[in-house]
Amino acid sequence: MPRTDLAAVDRVRDAEHLEDLLSEPDDGVIDTVRRLDGDVVVLGVGGKMGPSLARMLKRAADAAGVRKRVIGVSRFSSADLPRQLQAWGIETIAADLLDPDQLEKLPRVPNVVYMAGMKFGTTGQSARTWAMNAVLPAYVCRRFRGSRIVAFSTGNVYPMVPVTSGGATEADEPQPVGEYAQSCLGRERVFEHFSRTDGTPVALIRLNYAVEMRYGVLVDMAQRVLAGETIDVTMGNLNCIWQADANAMSIQAFDHAASPPFVLNVTGPEVVSVRRTCEELARGMDTTVSFSGVESPTAYLNNAQLSHRLFGYPRVNIQQVVQWTAEWVQRGGQSLGKPTHFEARDGKF
Fold this sequence. Notes:
Layout: H1 15-23, H2 27-35, E1 40-43, H3 50-64, E2 70-74, H4 80-87, E3 91-94, H5 100-104, E4 111-114, H6 126-143, E5 148-154, E6 161-162, H7 178-198, E7 202-207, E8 210-211, H8 217-226, E9 230-232, E10 237-238, E11 241-242, H9 243-252, E12 262-266, E13 272-273, H10 274-284, E14 290-292, E15 298-299, H11 305-311, H12 318-330
Parallel strand pairs: 1-2, 1-4, 2-3, 4-5, 5-7, 7-12, 8-11, 9-14
Antiparallel strand pairs: 6-15, 10-13
Helix pairs in contact: 2-3, 2-9, 3-9, 6-7, 8-10, 8-12, 10-12
């Protein structure tokens, strides 16, 4: 099937069109999946990025002409997602990963995508956040000892850096702010421990921030602009990346999994101005926007030059995602109702 000419896509028509765009593999993903020895399990497939990543893996296997099981594991709070995944050719297993007995029953496969964890909205749930983010990785490393693991982390393990710096690099020391980010560094350290002691090849993906039409920092901004809210620009800059590009780079990280772990920043190449982006969203939605506050000289920013050298620049640039987002939000397109709280500077999400 020919690849979509993304530059020619002026709007995302509906959820089905969106899912197709989010799960389309590029040549690099297809080549990686062709080389992968054995099946793949996606732990935590029920999150915001999991379904499209699992489908991308399956579509890549089909395009490469290789037989490969893609297995998605989640608690699955409703039956709708398992049915959708199965329709895409993905096997599903309902399991509570924090239960060692249920984890032990999962099929042992040589390739693991680890997407489980507590993410934004964790304030007030500190104990479960630490259990999910720092205890569960130990269970998974024991169950899948020797498997190749790509584990999602976050750029929030870095401190805020000067906007003029270009962002934190993989060589910078983590300095997490707040319990969420601290627990995420805990997750990384646990994967590193078992990678070093057991020789398990691991790639750690430090992501800032994946976006699509139904959630993400651009949707947060667009909804506030459309509602006529005043936008606080104290957190004046950020990074983001089209979700399909983030998933594609993360899948290709299987080729670089190592012991000790390979660490990779994944985000777009731009330092995105909140003020300018809100102004562009307002123009796209034929409205106006007002601001409060003054841009801070620091922000959570990642330098993703290494991922771009390895895998190329994102297929969808920030200008196009802003255009798609403005059109989608203005006409009342579906929203997951999961704000990112990107504006927080105290580590409380």
